[in-house]
Amino acid sequence: AGTARNIGDGGGNKFNALLIYNAVTITDDVNLEGIQNVLINNNADFTSSTAFNAGVIQIQNATYTIDANNGNLNIPAGNIQFAHADAQLILQNSSGNDRTITLGANIDPDNDDEGIVILNSVTAGKKLTIAGGKTFGGAHKLQTIVFKGAGDCGTAGTTFNTKNIVLDITGQLELGATTANVVLFKDAVQLTQTGNIG
How are strands ordered across the β-sheet holding 116-121? Predict the structure, then answer.
């Protein structure tokens, strides 16, 4: 960690695009405000704890992971676009501490049944909290929301507009309001419902 490195911020015009291919992991802090478009191309796997502030982040048939492993995060979220039905956005906590990811806007696909969001609390006994009171799937439903991992997940105050919610989590889960079908993958899911279902 330390001072964030700027990509495309030379005091003038912004870079038009940063293209992501294959597996790319950014381990240090970066600032992508100087980039208009980040395009995560088909079959790519892009992971970072800070690379989420470009003008537009477009996910093709690919995976984009934002990991709160180094601390709590404030994500603009309104700049994330699902460009394929199976585009995956993973919000996760892989650290040995509780972490909060605060969303600045709804995460909303352009069309119904596009995009898969995975909320992954990796470490047993630790918690991933999604804050900000926003909606996953606003005007258009997401294809699926997956709760995953050995840790706990808190989403009270968050609304889920999605076709399906998959509970593949062994920790405790606080679930906000949803109209989705809820599918249990684990026998020992501890679910606390904090909003309406249906």
Answer: 23-26, 45-48, 63-67, 88-93, 116-121, 142-149, 162-169, 181-184
Residue with tokens 């048939």: 61
**Edge-to-edge strand order for the sheet containing 190-193?**
73-75, 99-103, 127-131, 152-154, 172-175, 190-193
Structure tokens at 92: 């996760």
Q: Find the mean pLDDT for residues 120-147.
A: 94
Q: How far lies 136's CA from each of 9, 17, 18, 73, 148, in Å? A: 31, 26, 26, 17, 16
Cα–Cα distance, 169 to 152 (Å, whole number): 8
Burial of 188 (0-12, 13-18, 19+ CB in 10 A): exposed
Instruction: Kindly state the DSSP code that residue 196 receives in the 8-state scheme.
Output: -
**pLDDT for 75-123, tens place per residue?**
999 999 999 999 999 999 999 999 999 999 999 999 999 999 999 999 9
Domain spans of the chain, in order of start:
5-193
Nearest residue to 114 via CA among 145, 91, 148, 135: 145
Of the pLDDT bands very low, low, confident and very high (cuts 50, 70, 90), residue 9 is low
Identify the three-state secondary structure at position 126: coil
Q: Are 101 and 73 in contact (CB under 8 A)?
A: yes
Give the confidence band of 26 by pLDDT, cuts at 50, 70, 90.
confident
